[in-house]
Amino acid sequence: IMIVLALVWGIAVIGDSAQFSTAVAELSPPGLQGTMLTLQTATGFALSIVTVQLVPVIADAVGWRYAFMWLAIGPAFGIIAMLQLRAMPEALKLAHGKR
After folding, report:
1. CA distances from 22 to 17, 18, 65, 79 (A)
2. CA triple 84-41-90, angle to 5 deg
3. C-beta separation of 93 from 27 below 8 A
4. This prediction's pTM
5. Are 94 and 26 in contact (CB under 8 A)?
6. Which residues contact 79 (CB under 8 A, 6 or more apart)?
7. Are the C-beta atoms of 22 and 94 separated by less than 8 Å?
8. Angle, nearest 10°, between helix axes 17-27 and 33-62?
9. Distance CA 80, CA 59 (A)
10. DSSP states of 34-87 as a string?
C-alpha cells in the first residue's frame, strides 16, 4: 500500500512543475532565467525537506488523522498567486498571450 501511495503522490506533485517552470522562464528578466529557475528548484526542495521533517512533529501533536491537513496551505497559496498573476498585464507574456 505504501508503494502505491508513494507512486500516486510522486505523480501528483510533479503535475504542475512544468507550468510553474515555464511561467518563471517566460516572466524572468532576460539573462536571469537560469538563476530564477535555480531559485525555484532550490526553494521547492527546501520546502519539501521542511515538510517531510514537520509532518511527524505535527502528527505527534495532533495525531496522524489531522497531520496532513496543514499541507493544503501551500496549494492554496499557489492558487491565489496564480489568480493574481492572471490579473496582471505580465500574464499576457505567458504562452504568447493565449488563454
Report:
1. 9, 6, 36, 16
2. 30
3. yes
4. 0.70
5. yes
6. none
7. yes
8. 140
9. 27
10. HHHHHHHHHHHHHHHHHHHHHHHHHHHHH-HHHHTGGGGHHHHHHHHHHHHHHT
Assess contact for 36 and 28: CB atoms under 8 A. yes
Q: Cell 535555480 sits at which residue?
A: 38
Task: Count Cα neighbours of 55 within 13 Å in the Cβ-side half-sphere.
Answer: 11
Quick: pLDDT tens for 34-71: 999 999 999 988 988 999 899 999 999 999 889 888 88
Look up residue 29 and give its DSSP letter.
Answer: P
Per-residue model confidence as pLDDT tens digits over 9-31: 788 777 777 888 888 998 999 99
Backbone angles phi, psi at 32, to 5 degrees: -115, 5
